[in-house]
Write a structure and sequence with these properties.
Blueprint lengths: L4 H10 L10 E3 L1 H16 L4 H4 L15 H19 L7 E3 L4
Antiparallel strand pairs: 1-2
Helix pairs in contact: 2-4
């Protein structure tokens, strides 16, 4: 998800307890389902994007405005998450880690 700073912010706010320190963080399946619901909601209600899935700002952290790339990243992530969540993931562990 290179330069999808809104997604990174979502993980920081919802999984990493607000701490943005590039550490690897466990993500449970309910978090992934909540993310999928959030992405679908924002895609269906585009006027809520600034509030529900806001862009993170910082040293070249990607676009600082909602652009076509923002919407394309949402669509890609929805497809990816749906595929992942439909698989048999018993015994699987999921982690998020950022790096820059």
């Amino acid at each position: 998800w290179r330069k999808f700073n809104a997604l990174h912010k979502w993980f920081v706010d919802n999984v990493q307890e607000g701490v943005d320190d590039c550490r690897e963080t466990y993500v449970d399946e309910s978090d992934l389902k909540m993310l999928l619901e959030t992405l679908n909601y924002v895609l269906d209600n585009k006027g809520t994007a600034d509030v529900i899935l806001p862009i993170a700002k910082g040293f070249y952290f990607g676009d600082e405005e909602i652009t076509e790339d923002y919407w394309n990243n949402i669509k890609f992530t929805i497809i990816w998450l749906k595929d992942l969540l439909e698989e048999d993931n018993k015994g699987a562990s999921f982690y998020y880690r950022s790096s820059w």
